Every structure is written in structure tokens, then in C-alpha cells.
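Posting here for the record, re: flavin-adenine dinucleotide.
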Amino acid sequence: MKLHTVEVLQRERFGDHALLRYRWTGSPPEPGQFVMARVASSTSPTRSLDPFLPRPLFAHDYDGEAMRLLFEIRGRGTALLAGEGTELLVSDPLGRGYTIDGGPVALVGGGVWVSPLKLLARHLARSGVAHDVYLEIPAAAPEAYAAWISGSYPDATLVPTGGASDASRAVLESIGDLSRYAGLYASGPAPMLDAVKRVSRDTIPSQLAVRERMACANGSCYGCAVPVWEAGERAYTRACVEGPVFPGEVLAW
Ligand SMILES: Cc1cc2nc3c(=O)[nH]c(=O)nc-3n(C[C@H](O)[C@H](O)[C@H](O)COP(=O)(O)OP(=O)(O)OC[C@H]3O[C@@H](n4cnc5c(N)ncnc54)[C@H](O)[C@@H]3O)c2cc1C
Ligand code: FES
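Prediction output follows.
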């Protein structure tokens, strides 16, 4: 996979969440696509491969000149991305994202996984597709992040939850009558994806963004395999090339 050296334009921190903006003049991202990113090698030879693998992150937003990534700092790779440095190494936008059909549609997200919904909302607006946004704000989210989310998604219905096991249900209940929508687009924690898949079964089509851990991100290692239905049989496919967005009914979990 080719990594491009790009200029970091801005970093913002909201507790352990970060927003990173870099100049991007390559192919524009489709909503739901991701990039592989890592810090550029420093002058120190021991840091040139630290971390060894770039990390997958959804394209959060793109305005024609700059790409935004929104992420939680979880380990070494994301800590370095959120740190200092004026350059990054990033791939082209990768994978298959959301398909835009008719509306109206509902966008459902939770935690930092709301990331790809921003670019999706931008594309829906550009295509004239009516849409509503419903976002879970978990109690564990830093206060500054929750405030930023409400500013960044001004028209969204925000659903604060205590992080309880029924948090996803609370978000789905806030939508009310699902039958007024032609589709559901989701990106959230695993219980939320599961809940969206269940409520959309036999009612309205759903598209879910999964985030299996990735290594090669080019289809060769099968590290990102997800179970899917193929001709009635359970099979495995690669999230990095056939996803990360899948129709809900295709996922076999
Ligand atoms: C297609 C795709 C898109 C993604 N987009 C985003 C995004 O927009 N924002 C964001 O915050 N994260 C996103 N992730 C997850 C992100 O890639 C991981 O958080 C990151 O790789 C962690 O790297 P690290 O070196 O900081 O932590 P590591 O040291 O690699 O891991 C630290 C801990 O992070 C957790 N972790 C790592 N990977 C994942 C994962 N895929 N899902 C859940 N938990 C994980 C585990 O608990 C792990 O123990 C995405 C993942 C995929 C596959
Ligand atoms: S990450 Fe290697 S096949 Fe998907």
C-alpha cells in the first residue's frame, strides 16, 4: 500500500478524543471509506517504524482541500497521531463505503464511531436526500467531546446514555416510527450495529460500517475477515476491500 506524506494543518484534543486535519489533494473519499495513517518517520532511526503498521481511521470529513480524522486515543498508534509533528503518512481512501439511494434516511451513530457519518451527511445533503441524524453520547465521553459533537452535528438528535447495555435501544427508540425512513445508515459500537441490524430486518434496508482490526488493508492477509451470507451459506469476506460498509442483511452475526 502506498503511503503519501501529507502536511498536518490542525490538531484538536477533547480529552482522549482527537480531531486531525491534513492537506489532501488526492482522490476524494466516499463516505464510509477509511485511510491508513501513521506518523511520518522522525530523524531518529528507532522511530522510523514506530508504529510498524499504519492504523485504519474513517474519513470523518473532507472539504475538497483538507481531510479530517476523528479518533479516540487507544494505544501507541493513535497517541502518536494525536501528538506533535507536521507531517503524516496516509493512504488513499480505501474500501467500499455507504451507497446513497433515495430518502428520507436515518443516520445512527454512537461514541467516536459517529466519525464517518459527517461526510455521509455532507454527501446526502449534496444529493438532495433528506436525512435525520441520531447520535448516542455515552456518559464516558469527555465533556469537551460531547460539546464539540453537539456543535458539529447541530441538527442531530443527541441521546446521552449511561453506557448501559440498553444504550443502543435508547438511541433507536429516539427515532420513533422507523417506517417513515427508506433506509438506516449506522456506525457505532458493536451492540448498536447489532441493534440496528435487528430492527431493520424485514422492515427497511440498513448499511453498517464495521471496524474489524486491519493489518495489510489490501486484501492479502485476511486479518479483517467478517462473516457474511453467500447464497444461503455462511462465508467470510474481507472488510478492507469488500467493506467496511455492508448491507445489514449480508452480515452473518
Ligand atoms: C475501517 C476502520 C475504521 C476506523 N475508524 C476509526 C475512527 O474513525 N475513529 C476511531 O477512534 N477509531 C477508528 N478505528 C479503530 C482504530 O483503527 C483503532 O482504535 C486503532 O487502530 C488503535 O491503534 P492504537 O495503536 O492506538 O492502539 P492499539 O495498541 O493497536 O490497541 C489499543 C486498544 O484499542 C482497542 N482497539 C484497537 N483496534 C480496535 C478496533 N478496530 N475496534 C475497537 N477497538 C479497537 C483495543 O482495545 C486495543 O486493545 C477504525 C478501525 C477500522 C478497522
Ligand atoms: S486487513 Fe489484510 S485482508 Fe483486510
